[in-house]
């Protein structure tokens, strides 16, 4: 409590020189870094053309507040899917948690459709996030419900291409430009959560941590669960830390029921915990009163707090336990 209370005092001391920097314990990332910004520097969104896609992707990069004044520092990277919808929430969460000394500084990179492309661009995520398989929906009654009310025409399933773009093209290109630490987090919400599940079982070495929100994990006929079954037959270890969340109100919306959001999320959590992979850590949370949209920023914030709870406790945070 005392250290948290000292945060404004620390900021004042950094300006006035009332205290020597080595006496600081609150907010060491910013308050005692000469020349540091108050928040992250959000660069102008750039457009990137991949050889795998006939259209461009938007990439929004936010650099840590100390990035310019710590030329030798390297930072973990938070990769955020659905750039035009999710990146600003992630940046806001990081800014506040860093200011509160609840997590280290990170580089945030949002990847998705250009905002100028409108909802038509956002709609491409159905293609890009879908694992190989047939159709869109979860199996059984879920699929029949979607067919009867909102049938999806056949479409390409290009999660493999999107993951290759993300990991084999974009990551090395940006790593040559920015100072990445060897520590990567993937955030995916809804269909982005489905994609995260696909990435987890096809290229498990790519991300150290995953934030998976309200995932459509059973979509494409249980494609991710089928991949997990195959993965489990060949692997005993899965050294990834995962935070999974969903909103309790998601069960009150027809399309989310058809997508099996709550049941698919619960089954994903159960499967990982019961399989008992070596090195795997799973934290889950269902949020009363939150729906598919309002729950997203809460999941991002709670996941980051959970990932860095031990570091936060060591530097004076008042929230050392899991959420």
Description:
The chain is of the alpha/beta class and 323 residues long. The protein folds into 2 domains: 32 residues, no CATH class; 280 residues, Rossmann fold. Helices cover 41% and strands 17% of the residues. The chain is built from 13 helices and 9 strands. Strands 1, 2, 3, 4, 5, 6, 7, 8 and 9 form a 9-stranded mixed beta sheet that branches. Helix 8 links the parallel strand 6 and strand 7. The two termini are 18 Å apart. The N terminus is likely disordered.
Helices and strands, in order, run as HHEEEEHEHHHHEHEHEHHEHH
Shape: globular
- Mean pLDDT score: 88
SS strand fraction: 15-25%
Main β-sheet description: 9 strands, mixed
Number of helices: 13
Output the structural class: alpha/beta
Number of strands: 9
Quote the CATH topology of the largest domain. Rossmann fold
CATH class of the largest domain: Alpha Beta
CATH evolutionary superfamily of the largest domain: Alpha/Beta hydrolase fold, catalytic domain
Helix coverage percent of residues? 40-55%
Low-confidence stretches: 1-26
How many separate structural domains? 2
Radius of gyration: 20 Å
Second-tier CATH architecture of the largest domain: 3-Layer(aba) Sandwich
- Separation of termini? 18 Å
Organism: Erythrobacter rubeus
Keywords: Hydrolase, Signal
Protein name: Alpha/beta hydrolase
Family: Belongs to the esterase D family.
């Amino acid at each position: 409590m005392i250290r948290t209370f000292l945060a404004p005092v620390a900021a004042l001391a950094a300006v006035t020189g009332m205290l020597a920097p080595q006496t600081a314990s609150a907010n060491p990332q910013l308050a005692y870094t000469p020349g540091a910004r108050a928040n992250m520097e959000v660069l102008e969104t750039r457009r990137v053309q991949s050889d795998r896609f006939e259209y461009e992707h938007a990439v929004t990069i936010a650099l840590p507040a100390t990035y310019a004044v710590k030329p030798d520092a390297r930072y973990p990277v938070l990769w955020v899917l659905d750039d035009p919808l999710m990146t600003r929430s992630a940046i806001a969460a990081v800014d506040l948690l860093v200011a509160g000394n609840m997590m280290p500084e990170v580089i945030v990179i949002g990847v998705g459709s250009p905002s100028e492309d409108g909802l038509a661009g956002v709609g491409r995520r159905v293609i890009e996030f879908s694992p190989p398989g047939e159709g869109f929906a979860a199996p059984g009654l879920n699929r029949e419900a979607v067919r009867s009310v909102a049938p999806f025409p056949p479409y390409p399933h290009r999660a493999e291409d999107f993951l290759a773009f993300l990991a084999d093209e974009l990551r090395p290109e940006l790593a040559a430009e920015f100072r990445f630490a060897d520590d990567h987090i993937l955030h995916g919400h809804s269909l982005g959560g489905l994609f995260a599940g696909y990435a987890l079982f096809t290229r498990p070495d790519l991300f150290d941590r995953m934030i998976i929100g309200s995932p459509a994990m059973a979509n494409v006929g249980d494609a991710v669960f089928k991949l997990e079954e195959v993965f489990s037959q060949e692997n005993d270890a899965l050294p990834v830390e995962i935070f999974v969340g969903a909103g309790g109100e998601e069960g009150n919306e027809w399309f989310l029921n058809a997508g099996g959001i709550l049941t698919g999320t619960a089954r994903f959590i159960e499967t990982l915990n019961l399989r008992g992979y070596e090195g795997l850590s799973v934290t889950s949370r269902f949020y009363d009163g939150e729906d598919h949209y309002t729950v997203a920023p809460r999941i991002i914030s709670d996941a980051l707090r959970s990932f860095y709870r031990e570091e936060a406790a060591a530097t004076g945070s008042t929230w050392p336990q899991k959420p």
